[in-house]
Write a structure and sequence with these properties.
169 residues, Ferritin, 6 helices
């Protein structure tokens, strides 16, 4: 594996773990707001982002690369409303999409076909991630200031399937 590819994958591992850390912090804020469904949705997102990081981690090891875990920054939780939170989620997912696209461009330039194959899955996944965030934003905009509708959306988000940690918490 070329060093340039190895570094880019290590950077993406860090970005995925940073995403997970951000979503876990956002989940905690929703717990404080007593919006357990929103908190659950973000815990599941935390699990997904961790799984994404581990896909890159495993891929690197399968290719005899060197995994170098990088420092995570303290997450900043700056939202006051669910709408603000999910607008941040969408912007963040768009940022991750851009990172995946740049990594794909590098893989194509370096003719790293195994990485391109892996990244095809991530390209599709990012389409789903952005769509999911947009859908919640659209619902929140429709709800407006209706607390009863917010309660119903919170209950709906609590039903998001998740594995292990999100279910146990």
């Amino acid at each position: 594996m070329k060093k340039k590819i190895e570094q880019a994958i290590n950077d993406q591992i860090q970005a995925e773990f940073q995403s997970a850390y951000q979503y876990l912090a956002m989940s905690a804020r929703f717990e404080e707001m007593n919006l357990k469904g929103f908190a659950h949705w973000l815990k599941v997102q935390w699990e997904e982002e961790t799984a994404h990081a581990m896909k890159f981690y495993t891929f690197m090891l399968q290719r005899d690369g060197h995994v170098e875990l990088q420092t995570l920054k303290k997450p900043e939780v700056t939202f006051e409303t669910p709408l603000e939170a999910f607008e941040q989620v969408l912007r963040h997912e768009q940022h991750i999409t851009e990172r995946i696209h740049r990594l794909y461009d590098l893989a194509a330039k370096e003719r790293d076909y195994p990485l391109q194959t892996l990244l095809n899955w991530f390209v599709d996944e990012q389409v789903e991630e952005e769509e999911s965030a947009r859908e919640i934003i659209d619902h929140l905009k429709l709800i407006g200031d209706s607390n009863s509708h917010l309660f119903l959306l919170d209950r709906e988000l609590a039903r998001r399937p998740g594995g292990g940690e999100a279910e146990a918490a």
